[in-house]
Amino acid sequence: MIYLDNAATTFPKPLCMIREMEECMMKYCGNPGRSGHNMSMKTGEKVYEARKETADFFGIKDSSHVIFTYNATDGLNMAIKGVLKEGDHVITTAMEHNSVLRPLKALESRGVNTTIVRCTRNGYVHPQMIEREIRENTKLIVCTHASNVTGSIQPASQIGRMARERNILFLLDGSQSAGSVPIDVEEMNIDMLALPGHKGLLGPLGTGVLYLRPGIEPVMLKEGGTGTNSRDLRQPAEFPEGFESGTVNAPGIIGLGESIRYVKKKGIDQIRIHEENLVSRLEDHICNINELPGCRDRIIMYGPRISECRCDGNKLENVYGKTGIICLNIKDTDCEEVSEKLNQYGIAVRAGFHCAGIAHKTIGTVETGAVRFSVGPFNTMRQMDYTGEVLYRIARNC
What we know:
Blueprint (H helix, E strand, L loop, with lengths): L1 E2 L11 H14 L9 H20 L8 E4 L2 H12 L5 E5 L4 H10 L5 E5 L9 H6 L5 E7 L11 H10 L3 E5 L18 E5 L11 E5 L37 H17 L1 H22 L9 E4 L3 H4 L15 E6 L4 H10 L2 E2 L1 E3 L4 H7 L6 E5 L6 H17 L1
Parallel strand pairs: 1-11, 3-4, 3-5, 5-6, 6-7
Antiparallel strand pairs: 2-8, 7-8, 9-10, 10-13, 12-13
């Protein structure tokens, strides 16, 4: 199988991560922070190491403000629902995932007002558009770092600086960028950062990260055992234990720490260059297919092209780049049918609306959905060539 669904979760995973998790579960997997025996203490030490590794990766000075979550959705809900209250105003964009938009929609019944800023057809938001929507009661700006539909990378640093200057909290969703696009919470003025462990960080499913800048203390959404102050019925406020009630996914967190070390060693810049080259190769194949007899202009691509993103900035909307995603349709063919045909040829992609209905409205596919190809560090040029051949066969015969 040629796996081109890395925007959903990356595959395969690094062997070093798998071995680290296996060693944990087979040799010492006690409950961290709950007991004084060697197995519990070693597990706690390994979780601490993973926390430090994560903090260093994102430029976080105080690792205790790294909270391990189940996924990005978990972290986004903790951040959004934890800081917003009745009367607050929040600004977000039309390229967000439902893990942002649905919590905001749920808060409307509690008196929170939301403004969704329009984006360009290629899926970019201009900071000026956000700035125009700021009100006296604007409490939070939430923005995805990269679209899971088009791969468009948003100007997060500019948005963060604007928010900091106006004393507005900035929450960045790093679900599609962490591991292939640099993120530094200090340089980018990020107050809160939510992301999954299982995508660009190459970690296991069921892992995620939420960073909260010191001074931000959101309302806790759950209370329970933390291994600290057990005689007190009130939830401890200390970081990170107060926000990690219950037994954490220790094997997963330890595996995530190891996969982050792997990404560091491989190099974010090298990963991004590799993924850009893969996407460029497939985009070239698609453009060539559209010039062939019987296939002319049959494949419609959405969002920016890598070639446009690599230019020197003549097009303002494309200067921020894109991740390893191609979103397309074949004329007069249902996207699910295209996905199934690709699956028959041994190519795994995702078709539909990608949990981002407004994003699809932005790019013009709200009625049809689209087929998403998303590459990862382990894909090859030969796989792109084969995928191009298969797309030609499908486009010619549909």
